[in-house]
Design goal:
It contains nine helices and no strands. The longest helix is centred in the middle third of the chain and has 22 residues. It has two domains: about 70 residues; about 70 residues. The chain is elongated. Helix 8 packs across helix 9. It has about 180 residues and is an all-alpha fold.
């Protein structure tokens, strides 16, 4: 055993010692499914964690499949970078939330933690809303979102922007008062 090898190198050597099948990307769908089943079965047997499986299976991709993976990886990296630099800017809160949640899936290290989601969301808010939301420092995304909506509504009222009241409940029937005599 090579004592200078990293844990990943050791794991790769162990994985490849089982002669896992390769995928070149020209296979039909049945052959692709069969390849995937074989790889998954091997991973289960070796008890590799999911994050290790991705790193290992990349070594089994060749030709078209390797090219597809490289293009996909670059796209994922770009979307992750877009998420990490996301700012509210001209977006209203709802638009910002929509963009935030659509990009969140490209940053699993953030998606796995409520606190990290809240931090990322708050840090992307416009300064006026950021200050109001950050004062109470919410520790999850939903709380941060609710505080941001409340802060934005308060700022709009302060600036004299039209306030859209909540829906009016139907008035209860009032007794008819006869008109005054003429």
């Amino acid at each position: 055993m090579d004592v200078t090898a990293t844990p990943m190198e050791t794991m790769l050597k162990r994985f490849q010692s089982f002669k896992p099948p390769t995928l070149n990307g020209n296979e039909n769908s049945v052959e692709c499914e069969s390849w995937l089943e074989d790889i998954e079965e091997l991973f289960e047997s070796l008890d590799f964690a999911d994050d290790r499986r991705v790193k290992l299976v990349i070594h089994q991709l060749q030709e078209v499949a390797k090219g597809w993976w490289i293009a996909t990886w670059r796209a994922l990296e770009h979307r992750g970078a877009e998420f990490s630099s996301l700012q509210q800017g001209q977006l209203n809160i709802e638009q910002y939330v929509g963009k935030f949640t659509s990009l969140l899936k490209f940053s699993p290290h953030i998606a796995d933690s409520d606190e990290a989601q809240a931090d990322q969301f708050i840090n992307g808010l416009n300064p006026d809303v950021f200050t109001l939301v950050n004062a109470g420092r919410p520790n999850n995304f939903v709380d941060a979102l609710n505080r941001a909506k409340g802060a934005k509504a308060g700022l709009l009222r302060q600036r004299g922007a039209p306030f859209v009241p909540p829906p009016v409940r139907q008035p209860q029937e009032q007794p008819q008062i006869p008109p005054p005599p003429l």
